[in-house]
Amino acid sequence: MALELxxxxxxxxxxxxxxxxxxxxxxxVPYPFGFRPGCFHKGFNLTCDxxxxxxxxxxxxxxxVDAISLANSTVRVQSKMVxxxxxxxxxxxxxxxxxxxxxxxNFFVVIGCDLIASLIDGPQNASYVSVSATRCDNSSAPDxxxxxxxxxxxxxxxxxxxxxxxEVQVKDLDQQVDDTTPTYGGAFIxxxxxxxxxxxxxxxxxxxxxxxxxxxxxxxxxxLDLERDYxxxxxxxxxxxxxRCISLNSFAFIVAVxxxxxxxxxxxxxCNCSDGYEGNPYIxxxxxxxxxxxxxxxxxxxxxxxxxxxxxRCSAIISLPGLITVISITVGLAxxxxxxxxxxxxxxxxxxxxxxxxxxxxxxxxxLLLQQSISSSKDIAERTRIFCxxxxxxxxNNFDQNRILGGGGHGTVYKGILSDQHIVAIKKxxxxxxxxxxxxxxxxxxxxxxxxRNVVKLFGCCLETEVPLLVYEFISNGTLSFHLHxxxxxxxxxxxxxxxxxxxxxxxxxxHSAATISVYxxxxxxxxxxxxxxxxxxxxxxxxxxxxxxxxxxxxxAVQGTYGYLDPEYYYTGRLTEKSDVYSFGVIxxxxxxxxxxxxxxxxxxxxxxxxxVVSLIRDNRFxxxxxxxxxxxxxxxxxxxxxxxxxxxxxxxGEERPTMRQVETILQDVQxxxxxxxxxxxxxxxxxxxxQPWNKNKGGEGTRIYSMENEFIQSSEIPR
Length: 721
Description:
- InterPro entries: EGF-like_Ca-bd_dom, EGF_Ca-bd_CS, Growth_fac_rcpt_cys_sf, Kinase-like_dom_sf, NOTCH1_EGF-like, Prot_kinase_dom, Protein_kinase_ATP_BS, Ser/Thr_kinase_AS.
- This protein has 721 residues and is α+β, with helices and mostly antiparallel strands.
- The chain contains 15 helices and 39 strands.
- It folds into 4 domains: 151 residues, no CATH class; 65 residues, no CATH class; 107 residues, 2-Layer Sandwich (Phosphorylase Kinase, domain 1); 235 residues, Transferase(Phosphotransferase) domain 1 (Transferase(Phosphotransferase), domain 1, Orthogonal Bundle).
- The strands form 13 sheets. A 6-stranded antiparallel sheet has the order 3-4-5-6-16-9, with no helix packed on it. A 6-stranded mixed sheet has the order 26-30-31-29-28-27, with helices on both faces.
- A hairpin with a 7-residue loop joins β22 and β23.
C-alpha cells in the first residue's frame, strides 16, 4: 500500500486556462499542467482517473500525483521502492521530459541489514550518482524506535544529479557480488521533508516487520526551455533577466538543471509573479494584484491602508498615541545614529581592504600590460576602456541571477545597464583557474585590435576581480542557432540566411587576412553568431581563438572546439590552420540550407554527422532530399544548389582542398547578386579564384571515407572547450 500523504486543497484563485478544470479530486492542477485536450502545454499532460472516488491524478499509468507547486516548480508523486533485487527507479517520465527527480528535495535511502545500494546514471554510462550502505549487529534487526537513519539498519544520503530514471543496485555489503540477493531490504528515493520521525519508523517497520509498503512520496522538479517553450516565455527588457512569462507582472529566471551524463536543456527557466502579485504566471493575466489591506494582519499598524498596484500605502492618522510613537522613533533614531558612527568606521576599513584586493587582482591579471597595449594605439583607446568593479556591480545589481542572459563555453553572460543607460552584455568566467584567465585576456587582446561591423564589439574589461570581466555590446535577438533550430514563429527567409552567411564569411575572412594580426577563431558555430533586431550577424566568443603572425600558415596546439563543427584534420593532427575555420563555416552553411543540427538522430544512428550526411547526398545528386522546404517554396533551389557545392568544398577532408574564406566570401557575394548559376554540372562563378578546388574532381571513393571518419570523430571522447 502507499503511505498516506497530506495534499493541498483546491486553490481559490483560478490557475487553469478558461474552461479547463482546476483540480482532479483534491489536487490542484495549474497550467501548464492539465489533463483534458487543450488544457495543457506540450509535455505537461497528466491523466485524471475520474472512475475512482475520489478521482486520482496520475503522471503515468502507475505514478500517482499528490501535489503540484507553481512557486517551487515541483511535482510530488508516489514512486515505487526497489526491494530485494537490482532494478530501475523511474518517476514515470522519459529522457527529454520536462520533469526529473529534484536533488534539492529528496534523499536516497536504503533499509536492511549489511547492504550497499548504488544509484547509477543508466546502464550504458554506469556513472555512480549516490551510494548508501547499512550495518546491523550480528545481522539482526535494529532497534525500530531509532529514527535517525544514520547507518544502522537504515541510511540516507543526498543525490548529485536530478534525472528522470536511474539504475539501482542492491548488494550484500560483505560479499559484494551481483548475484547475491539480500534476505530482506530495499532502496528508494523519498521526499526529505516527509522522511523524518514517525515516517522513518514506518518505513523500518515495513522492511523488518514485513508490512506491505511499496511506494513513497518523491519530489520532481520541472522547468520551461527558453527555445522550446518560446510563447510561454517572452522578451521583456524591463525585467532584470530580459524575459518574463506570458502574464504581465511576472518575471522569468534561468535555473541550473543537472543532467548527469546527458545534455541539459538549452536555456532552462522558471517563472514567478512579481512582488505584490499572486496567481499563475504561465497564463495570460494570471498574476493579479494582492490587496494587502484585506489581509488578516493589517500592514499599517497606526494608520489607514491604501491598496496600490503591486504595493500599498499607509496614510498617517494624527493622534496622541501617534505623537508618542513619533517621539519614540526620534529617540530610537538618535541611538541608531550613534551605532552608525561605529559602523561607518568599520565600513571604511572594509573598503580599504577591498581596494587593496582589487589592486592585487588588477596586477595579477596583467592590468598594466593591458593598459599599455590599449593606450599605445589612439584608435584602440577610443574604442576600449577599463571599467572599475563598482560600476559593473551597479549595472548588474551585484550580478543578480535574474540578470543572466546565458552561458558561453568560457563564462556566464549578464545583462548590464551602465550609468548612461547604455545596455551591455558582461561576461564572467565560471571557473577560477589560470587557463580561464589567460583565455579572457586573450579575448581582450584580440577584440581590442578588431574593428568590423560583423564582429561583436568589445567596449572594455574589468581587471579588479579574481577573474577578469568583459563588457560587450548588447545583442538582443538571440543566436543564429536559436533562429534555425528553436521553436520560432518566424523562421529566417532564404534571403536573410544568404545575407547572414555572407556577413559571417566577411567577418572570418577579415580575421584571417585583413586584421592587424591573423586570428583563427577555433570555435565557429551557429551558437556563436548573434543577430541584431535587423538580423545583422555578429561573430562572438573569442576565448578559444589564437593569433599568429601574418606570414605563418598554422600552429600546433591542444584541440578545442565543439561537436559537429570541429575540423577532422585538426582533430587528428593538432595543427590549427585557417582552413579549420573554413570547415566549421561549411557546417554552418549546411545548417542554413537544411535547418538540421550539426549532430542529429536518424533512423539508422543516434549521432549522425550533418557534415558527412550532406556531403554524401550532394555527391549522390540527392541534395534536395534534405534541403529545407521553405527555400524551395521561396524559389531559392538554384542558388541553394550553388551553395551546396560550396559546402562540399568547405567540408573536404583535406584542408588544402578547401577554399579560403576570402574565396568563400566572393562566391557568396556572387550568389547574393545573382551572378552565380548552377547548370547541373559546373559552377560559373569566379573560376580563377577556385582553380584547383575539388568541385570538378571525381571523389566517389572519398565520400565513404569522410563519412566513416566523421562518425568515428562524433563517437569519440568529448573535445575540450
